Every structure is written in structure tokens, then in C-alpha cells.
Amino acid sequence: MDSPAKAVNTEHKWLNLPQAIPAALLLSAGFYFLSMHNYLLYHAMVELFAVVVAFTIFSIGWNTRKYSQTNILILLAVGYLLVGITDVLHTLAFKGMGVFTGYDSNLPTQLWIAGRYLEALTILSAAFYLGRKNLLHARYLLALALVVGSALIIAIFTGFFPDCFIEGQGLTPFKVISEYVISLLLLCAAILLYKKRRYLSLNILKLLLVAIGLTILSEMSFTLYVDVYGFLNYLGHIFKLFSVVLIYKALIDESLNNPFQLLFKELNDTKEQLQAELLKTKASEEELEQRVHDRTAELEASNKELESFAYSISHDLRAPLRAINGFSSELVKDYYEQFNDRGRHYLDRIIKASARMGQLIDDLLQLSRITRVTINRELVNLSDMAEQISEKLKALEPDRMINWKIAENITIRGDRELLWLVMEILLHNAWKFTGQRNRSEIEIGFLIKNKQKVVFVRDNGAGFDMLYAGKLFGPFQRLHGTDEFPGTGIGLATVQRIIKRHGGEIWAEAAVGRGATFYFTMGREL
Q1: Domain annotation covers residue 175
Q2: Which pLDDT score is estimated for 291?
Q3: Is the residue at 6 inside a domain?
Q4: In sequence order, what DSSP letters do the residues of 496-511 get, joined into one string?
Q5: 101/114 Cα distance (integer angstroms)
Q6: What's the pLDDT score for residue 485?
Q7: CA nearest 199: which of 103, 273, 118?
């Protein structure tokens, strides 16, 4: 069985002219002789065929609306329903039928022109909405069309519709002008259909364009007759008959014999668009992969440069620093008493500065290693870590009065060594900044916020002004002088980098003289 795409692309010969022209001439001659013998029968046969086609278009379009991805069929269905109803009334109102008594030839002519307006607007609307993605609501459209059609028919039968034919005089200016307006609407529809030809198969496009052309010829014929039984009236109906045959061929025969031609052509177009988008996406993915590869290479090169820089700091800078420390120690050992007070002050400052520089080098190396180290996540008990770190800090100053509050069983998932460093820096800071308190308090605990475990380290130390909190985690940023509280300004920057690498956040709350609280998370765990 052929695929939909193959069915769409298969273009059958749309019209067999050698057979069609003789058949059309023979049919025209037969209908002409029938019109000469019994015009009512001829007129009824032509109109009823048009009515059957109109109702068939409605039936197919309405019942396939749920499967169609385009507006054209539902518009044609609703429009041709009104056209079919109007043409039935036109046929029954024709002089000699005896259905609507008390009316002259003006009534069928009014119904005719109303039907042609409806048909022209239907084809124009279908051409306008062809290819648009926003689908119309079929039930609302049908309800609106029935209201408009009912109002139009009521206006005709109650005398509010303009006269189109006056007995003994012929067509009114309104009727003639309307035929030209209808022809113009049909011409606009033909132009739109041609511009949007990519949405239709070649067969259907050709049939619709020829059908519109014959309809325009029909309208032109109806601008000239003076007798509803005359030759021009007959000619107009013949053109209409052939246009209806072509519309039948385009919208019914073609769509039933090869339903993919009309109903599912857009699916094929969508498939082609998706294939094109897939190719673009594949090209974009390849480009993205190349960019990722290039960026990875750049990062690897940067990491190597950083390692080289760290090696230089570790070895090249430490060599002269060791010399400074060594010679300073010799001066203290052998010549310290020979210096005056100013000389001893300068020597003490050199020793402290070299020690601070050594500590700064260690902290910088530690900060650089954190960006490269591989994180091994496991369940870590921060309470145990805090207990061990607090014991080391107590040993530094055994006489200090510190009230340690460590919550039990604070567990969190992360890298054990890096989390030890986090707790060590935060607790050392709390220990350092509470050094001027008679009685220090340091608390380690946790709380649950937005389904996340938030660990905190709180102290009652010096605190800081929250206006400068933005500088708190920047390297070399200090909110207190080194003479007041020693340090390099690298510790909190190191802590933040470790927390960020775990996917967490860190922040602080403090007030000057009232201590500080540092909070951190390790990402969503609950």
C-alpha cells in the first residue's frame, strides 16, 4: 500500500480533454434541446445537480472536520450548505413550479443572486484561510452561517432584499452590479488559490481555477438576459453546470479516489517541514557538539595553565619566602639584642609579614585546588566533624570560656574532605570573631526550609554590617582589619566555592556587635 506522501505526490491526469470536450458539447446540445422543449425540466435538472454537489461537499467536509488539519474543508462545507439551501429555494421559486404562489420572476432571481454571493464568499474565505494554522471552531461557524443564511432568506421573502428582476423591464442595476461584484470576488479567490498553490495538489488547483473561470462566465451571462427563459439564461446555467462538475471533480471525486490529495496533503507538508527542521536540528547539534568540544579544550588548557600557575606559586614564591624566614630567624637568634627598639619592631613586622604571606600562599593554593578536585558524594555527619574541630580549637586556648551547642546527627550528602574544610573555616571564624567576648557562644544546627536541609553556624561575636554582605565571599575581601582579627580573606571565598560546586547556596545574617549566622545548603535532598 502506498504511503501518504507517495499518494500526495502522484499527479494523475487531471482532465482528459479529447474525451471531455466532445462530451461537454454533446451534453450542452442535449440540454439546449431539452430547454427548448421543457425549460422547467432543464432548469430543475441543472439546479438539483448543483444542490446535490453542494450537500455532498457539506457532508464530506463536516464529517471529516475532526481529522482535517486545515480550515478549507470546513469553510467549504458550511458555505455550500447555505448555497445548497438557497439553490433549492431558487429552483422551487422558478416561474411555473407553482410552489411559492404570489411571487413573480423577481423571487428566483433574488435567491439566485443571494446563492451566488454565498458561493463567492465561501470560495474566497476558503482561499483566504488555506494554509493557516489557527483552526476554526466548526460548530460556532455553522451556527453563525445558519443565522446569516436565515436572515438573508427572510429578507428576500419579506421584501427587504433589493429587487433583481422587474417583469417587462428585465434585470435591475443592483442585479447587474452584483454579478460584477461576485465575479470580482471569484477572481480574488482564484488569485489567492494560485498564490497558495503549495497547499493544494496540482490536480485540485487546476480544477478549482477552471471552475472559478466558468462561474465568472456564468455570472457574465446573467448580466445580459431579459427573459428568464432566454438563451443567455440557458448559457449561464450551462456554465454553472460545468463549473459544478469541476468543483465536484476537485472536492469530491479527487478527494474520495485519492483522499490524501486534499485531506492529508498538509500532513505530508508537515512531514517535509519536520524533516527540514530535523536536518536543521541535527546541524545545530553538530555545531553545539563542536562548540562544546572546543570549549572543553579551552577549559582543559585553562586548567593546565592554572596548575602551572599554582606550581609556580608553590615552588617559585616559597623559595624566596623561605630565605626571608631563614635570615629573619638568624637575625633574631644572633643580633636581636643588638637592635634598638625601632630595629626590633621592623624585624618583628618582617617576620609577621612573611608568615602572613606563607599563609596567603597556602590559602590561594587551597582555593585553586577546590575548582579542580573531583567531588565524591557520601553521607557525612557534620555533628561529628564539629565535635572534632571544636576540640582542636579548645586546645589552642584552654582558658577561654566558650559555650558550644552542637545539634546531634546533622547528616548531609557531599564530599567528606571538602565539607571538613567548610566546617573548619566556619567554626574557626566563629572562634576567632568571638575572641573579645567574656563568654563566647557558638552553635551548630539545622532547619528545614522549602524542603531543603539548611545547616547553620551561629556565634555571638563581632558580627558585621549587612550593607557590606555582598563583599563577604569575595577573595581578599575583609570586613575587619588584620590588626583586630588576623586572616587572609580567602576562607569564606573557599567555603562559597565548595558549596557552589555541590549545587548549594550560602548566605549570612549579622549585626555589628551581635554576632553572625552563616547558612548553607547542599542542594535539594528531601
Answers
A1: yes
A2: 80
A3: no
A4: HHHHHHTT--EEEEE-
A5: 20
A6: 54
A7: 273
